[in-house]
Specification:
This protein is an alpha/beta fold. Helix content is 35%, strand content 17%.
């Protein structure tokens, strides 16, 4: 009987040991598997490349510009022209007569520039500057330009001061009243043409004084650049 109990006890001990060994082996195997999973390369996210933005081509803008020469819009009052004088023709034909052949072209373009070669003033002859020819006209002659598609005028020339500083200041005031932009000498004009910011400046340079215009040219260019214009037009007379 004792012998039988001894055998049973030994068997239980052996079973307990074997069970412990199996538990250890199972835990060890589970630990190794977990480590391998942790060391494995993480799954890469799904490749969803973002769509590249389209390449924008540079915008090309064409600007059609006409530049008109000297517009005296009157005669020297010291000379008699009879029925051919500006005042006579203006009274008879009206302001649209003078540029009738160009009006359609000027109105269809993007920018028309004219050189205003006189003083727009009612100043009397006491303001007349001594010279061979002096030109002035009343403000009504500006309708010749505004009614024919002219967009802006240059006032830097050898006749803008024919009636002194008074005539010159009158010219600028009359242009403002007529809502006709102007530039030249100490004045600048900046216009938006088809989304392009155009700056304009003008200078009068006598033939033997061209080099003297350089400082004023640089001054004008620097000013217009400071206004962030896209394009600069310089007019020299």
């Amino acid at each position: 009987m004792k012998q039988r109990n001894k055998i049973i006890n030994i068997s239980l001990i052996l079973l307990t040991i074997i069970g412990c060994i199996l538990v250890v082996l199972i835990i060890s195997q589970f630990h190794q598997t977990t480590q391998k999973q942790n060391l494995a390369t993480p799954e890469e996210p799904e490749n969803n490349p973002t769509e590249k933005p389209p390449v924008l081509e540079p915008t090309k803008t064409t600007i059609d510009i006409h530049a008109v020469g000297d517009c005296t819009l009157n005669v020297d009052t010291h000379f008699y022209y009879g029925d051919l004088g500006y005042d006579k023709v203006l009274e008879k034909e009206g302001p649209d007569y003078f540029l009738a052949n160009f009006k359609d072209m000027f109105e269809k373009d993007d920018l028309t520039i004219a050189n205003l070669e006189l003083a727009i003033t009612d100043a009397d002859e006491s303001y007349r500057v001594p010279k061979a020819f002096n030109f002035k006209a009343p403000a009504k002659v500006l309708k010749i330009l505004t009614g024919s598609g002219v967009d802006v005028v240059n006032i830097a020339n050898n006749h803008s001061h024919d009636y002194g500083e008074k005539g010159y200041e009158d010219t600028k005031n009359n242009l403002r009243e007529a809502k006709l932009p102007f530039y030249g000498n100490d004045s600048y004009s900046i216009l938006d043409v088809k989304g392009i910011k155009i700056g304009m400046a003008g200078l009068y340079c006598a033939e033997d004084e061209v080099a003297d215009c350089k400082p004023d040219t640089l001054k004008a260019l620097n000013y217009l650049k400071s206004q962030n214009v896209d394009m600069i037009i310089m007019t020299y007379h």
